[in-house]
User: Fold this.
Amino acid sequence: MSNPINGTHNSNRAIPRQTLTSAVADRLRDKILRGEFREGEQLRQHAIAAEFDVSRIPLREAFRQLEAEGLIKIIDHRGAVVSALSPDEIEELFEIRASLESVTLRQAVPRLTDEALARAETVLEAYERALNAESDFDVWGELHWQFHSVLYAAANRTRSLSLIQTINNNADRYIRLHILFSRDAHRHAKDEHRAILELCRQRDAEAACQLLERHITKAGRDMKEFIKQQREQS
Assistant:
């Protein structure tokens, strides 16, 4: 994965020493989330295997992993294709996010340490810098996830955090597209993240969760309309 806080990113680096299937899945996921593979695009096994210098066996296993995450679909006689969510499905993802993340944050707030809050502040500052720099477009989603996950981790709900991350991965490519084209989305994201962090500092779990739920739900409605307009224009 990239290190967005330090501003380094290399999508063509060598496969790291980890489970090969997981490494291939990580690389493919990264390319999908950054828009290198676009929705509806067919993932050609031969070309990807050559690019990653791997056999087709770990590649097929990686495809199955990404299909389980909802990022691709395996279609008969066509193979792996990047999933395209409908506007209603996008809104539904955000509704699920709002429910699950607010419950998790409510559990986390009383357990947040000063160190965790300082880490969230550092990540949020990096996220804000990235939003202001078009060259950092490819790390917006990762920093957005880091900020939220630092806050949620204190809940010590491993399964919930895993589900939240999967849902965020599915929504991430649309979030970044929306922010790229909407200055209002940029401003609201910045202001509301700041407000959520401050409420967490005050240990006001109820207010933090209410704001988080409104923040995510509104983002889902806005995203639904934005994607509808983009596809109608296309």
Remarks:
- The chain has nine helices and three strands.
